[in-house]
Amino acid sequence: xxxxxxxxxxxxxxxxxxxxxxxxxxxxxxxxxxxxxxxxxxxxxxxxxxxxxxxxxxxxxxxxxxxxxxxxxxxxxxxxxxxxxxxxxxxxxxxxxxxxxxxxxxxxxxxxxxxxxxxxxxxxxxxxxxxxxxxxxxxxxxxxxxxxxxxxxxxxxxxxxxxxxxxxxxxxxxxxxxxxxxxxxxxxxxxxxxxxxxxxxxxxxxxxxxxxxxxxxxxxxxxxxxxxxxxxxxxxxxxxxxxxxxxxxxxxxxxxxxxxxxxxxxxxxxxxxxxxxxxxxxxxxxxxxxxxxxxxxxxxxxxxxxxxxxxxxxxxxxxxxxxxxxxxxxxxxxxxxxxxxxxxxxxxxxxxxxxxxxxxxxxxxxxxxxxxxxxxxxxxxxxxxxxxxxxxxxxxxxxxxxxxxxxxxxxxxxxxxx
Length: 418
Prior knowledge:
The chain is α+β, with helices and mostly antiparallel strands.
């Protein structure tokens, strides 16, 4: 069930993070969610027993994470030689091959950040289970919340599946217990996030917003994007009294920062598609492969489905993100009032799909770590992979730096004039 609302049952006021419209909190049935009636953003959900459910799931995720990182992951057999990998191997292989930047990026997004999220949430949830607040809870929550978009277990799993399919024609590929644990980890990790209600956690702090309708009329309210606490604007630099995040009416220099990041991404996009992302060496003969040539090779091999996935993730998504963000910036600077809800939806698309372009980087790391059989057959990462990783990372930062509330400012200004 989904409920858009603007009415009141208890007088508590909440704000939408994406359009800055205010709503009265309403009690909704278990399993339901409340959305902003203006832009459709999810305001909150009613998840029964959220603390206990998410705690159990994160504990399970931690066990699966340990199993996934200890036992063998994938093994490749060719010509009597066997190469066996663990999860850490792909990042380490990139480092040994002179691509330390990519190695660090792979390890952070596929191993370290997911681990920090799991452990950080357990640190917060275990005391909450007993009705208390963990020491430094606001700081830990802010840090964990900031790296969740960079915790790419699902994208890494897609890279694994693509690597297995690509290697079928080259050699025998066997899966280890770690791969099963990783697949289960992805499911449990996703379920843990879906069952966590941050309002249950923040309610333990004892802070309750006392914003009134008179404050709304004066337009002097600051909305905390970390915990949702509403604060009166007293005209100077302020921090949220509940989570200590810095408060602002709009993200500082949002338009300028987003333009700068987009220009950098456009510049990197050219060498990312021109230079090879990897080179396949067979019996001493190297065959460089760009992103596009890799897609064409999959088509020639009859792997149409796989080719479509790689094409969308590696070519369509980066370009689409850049085009959408450019369009949003121009529309904001032109003070457009055209379909603000649809433009906000476009912004959400850039946030949702952006990280999936990392599948190509994970794929290069996996293939480089597995196919390392000297002159017999070897895969080496190419400089194009560095440029492409730069495009992915920069566009993710660009999406984060853009403030979607700017889309609605002109509409509100026009309404105030009327």
